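Task: encode each sequence below as structure tokens.

Item 1
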Amino acid sequence: MTRRTNARVAGFTYLFYLAVGITSMVLSNRAIGGEGIAAKLASIAQHAREMRVLVVLTLLTSLSALVLGVTLYAITREQDPDLAMLGLTGRVIEGVNGATSMAWLGVIASFLLVLGLPAQFFGLITGGFFTGPIGWFAWMPLLVFEVTLALWFLIKGVAMPAPR
């Protein structure tokens, strides 16, 4: 594919990834609600259809991360092959278990989430900070970064790197 096609695919995939990811988060909060394991399991049993949709959305999110990895690699490999491979590897890891992003805003937002989500899991942050209404603010820097980058790819594409 051409660089322009890769940029457009990456832009579309970013927006698709965000839409699927946000939908997945909303469904997850509804389907896996409650305090304690017993309440969560009861909620999952009551929301079987939502859980099936959630599984499909999770697969689509993983596939989107892999497509982003490939297209971003194709866009950046001529400029810096090592950095492009690092980005591809990060997106593959994200496709497998959801962890990273590129560029400063993306890196900072991901860093905050990488610290905050495990801190909540281990009880250092209580009250559902990353899942309640306040939790949306933790995701905002990453949302701004990815929407901006997606629109940039869709509208402007990418330029050919200068020959060395």
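Item 2
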Amino acid sequence: MKPAIAFWSGGKDSGLALDRVRRACAYDIVALITTVNEQYRRVAMHGVREELIDRQAQAIGIPLHKMYVAGGSSNDDYVPALCRALQRFKAQGLDDVVFGDIFLEDLRQWRENLLNDLGMTGIFSLWKHDTRQLAEEFIERGFKAIVCCVNDAQLKQSDVGSELDAEFFQSLPAGVDSCGENGEYHSFVYDGPIFRRPVAFAVGETVYRPLGAGGLSGGSAARAQAIPVPATSTPTKTKGFWFVDLKLNEPEPAGAVTR
């Protein structure tokens, strides 16, 4: 199998994309890349603590490379950090990068343009698949995840902390994508076929962060959403985001590996 790297948000789509790539036996994923806010030490928009992403990688058994960006989460911070991370792997002879994107054309084009400049190729294992079917596949494959963030324009405070099970997907309002591809919600996946053991965590407080306020994601939620696609002038009904704070509740296992 050809070695490759995979972008890892810690959520449902990146988990399902990794599962599909592994089952296809075309690529050997040798590293995961996660973007972490340098100031708050959390995954942008997801608001998940850095140490929980570490635990995911340890439970999966793939080394994790953390790409740190400054608190403002602007493209001026993100793009240079991304290029440095990719160039590091390119220098090791790795040309292929796996993403969990599903149907956002501008985002895929942005990624492919950047990768092309670096002499690398994007692998989109979920691309153009029906998101309702992907949600069903997620359940059927035995994945388990929790909603860690929701956009208040589409979902409610009570949706944060929900398990991503059949009941959750069936309860989504009309107009909300099943996989949250438009940013309606984000998730933290803690068990499934890609894991050698579940990730143990505790559910903490639920907090609300209005647009423009520093949140669990660290910085402006509006600006964080603009990464890596430039912000648009389209009016939004979003006033803010609900987050649930997830925490570790067990000691770090021996033999942890990062890179």
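Check on item 2: DSSP finds seven helices and nine strands in the chain. The CA atoms of residues 42 and 49 lie 4 Å apart.
End of task.
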